[in-house]
Amino acid sequence: MSIKILLDKCTGCTLCVKGCPFAAISMIEMEAEAKPKKKASINLDVCTLCGACVATCKFGAIELKKELTAAKDLSAYKNVWVFAEQREGKIQSVTYELLSEGRKLAADLKCELAAVLCGDQNIEDEVEHLYRFGANKVYLITHQELKHYHTEPYTRAIAEAITKHKPEIFLLGATTQGRDLAARLAIRIGAGLTADCTSLAIDPEKKILQQTRPAFGGNIMATIVSPNHRPQMSTVRPKVFKKSPLDKPAAGELIKFSPVLNKEDLVVKLLDIVQDESVKVNLAEAEIIVSGGRGIGDSKNFAMLEELAALLGGAVGASRATVDAGWISAHHQVGQTGKTVSPKLYIACGISGKIQHLVGMQSADTIVAINKDPDAPIFKVATYGIVADVLEIIPLLTRKLKELRQ
Ligand SMILES: Cc1cc2nc3c(=O)[nH]c(=O)nc-3n(C[C@H](O)[C@H](O)[C@H](O)COP(=O)(O)OP(=O)(O)OC[C@H]3O[C@@H](n4cnc5c(N)ncnc54)[C@H](O)[C@@H]3O)c2cc1C
């Protein structure tokens, strides 16, 4: 994309200066005989090409050129790709979830499923896991600078692979890495991107990807398509899809390459890795979650839930209301703006079950809801419902469990 002021049309009215949300336009002096004396000028270091100024200019004096990728031959793009996210040399679970879902998309499109794995030379040991979850091909991109995730070298290397091999769909985890990489890549290669999808499907007629995600604060589910750009890119949070390995031994094709990384791709240096406190909570991986909502009445009552969770070998979750109230840290929050979880057992204690909470936990195998209000929406998704005071039920449950243990 490019932008410029058409000086012959600029009247010096300054509307664009006021209309630019990024303060990227200023008025500059013209030559002595020019009329008007000052005209608009765009600072391209600050301009984001958002187009707001084009809309404010009444004289058609700003030209924003978009190079439409619609002109690309879309039929040249084939196959479903998954970004194989690794940390400390281990492939992250979200990769297997995306491969498991990617298998269905690839089957509907009658195409291949591939994974893209970046790392240093030692990462090759991880490749076989990707085959086990259905990857027909693995693009292995190795370089010393790819050992740990960095935005620029990863973007450079994967953009090169996409440009060369032309995948039709590219899925990434909506994790810190995936979100960062997806946005940068989408701009670099001129692709459409839908973040935080909760379901993916192939339109049976048009054969394009339908990307569904909550919108307007979770009040509607929007299905987004990217008909004119390739690849169609989506991020999906961990635990939205279930991982299912193939039931037979699998192998695939390994395509290796080492990217050329320039000096400008390596401007960020990794000094230290500090363990994220939320990893200790490990909510996303927990098989049992005891989760508290505003109905528990007080921050100190989380101790009750912690005791029960510890007895069950599980973790403590929370609704946003309790996090906002400062009762518990945000690392515990389940829901649209918290974590998506899919445990075997989810015990919702004093949680009303607003849609923003449900989208984060409704795929749990068994949901037990304890709520005083028999009409609370949580009961609509609950496997078992207990209409009672949670502050009475939890101690009873804990006592019973202790007795059984003895
Ligand atoms: C953009 C956006 C994003 C959001 N993201 C999230 C998110 O990620 N996660 C999330 O949780 N929320 C999220 N929310 C907030 C969400 O809409 C709800 O406000 C929140 O989930 C309510 O939390 P709660 O169920 O604990 O509280 P409440 O809605 O106040 O419900 C408390 C429940 O406890 C019951 N109760 C009261 N006393 C007792 C008792 N003694 N025993 C048993 N039951 C009792 C009540 O009947 C009630 O059903 C989001 C909202 C928006 C707009």
Features:
five-stranded parallel beta sheet; Rossmann fold; about 400 residues; seven-stranded parallel beta sheet; ETF_asu_C; alpha/beta; about 25% helix; binds flavin-adenine dinucleotide; Alpha-Beta Plaits; 21 strands
Please identify the top-level CATH class of the largest domain.
Alpha Beta
Principal-axes shape call: globular
As for the CATH topology of the largest domain, it is Rossmann fold
C-alpha Rg (nearest Å): 26 Å
Order of strands, main sheet, comes to 11-15-10-5-8-9-16
Bound molecules: flavin-adenine dinucleotide
Q: Name the beta content range.
A: 15-25%
User: How far is the N terminus from the C terminus?
Assistant: 70 Å
Q: What would you call the structural class?
A: alpha/beta
The average pLDDT score comes to 93
CATH superfamily of the largest domain: HUPs
Summarize the structure.
This protein is α/β, with parallel strands linked by helices and 406 residues long.
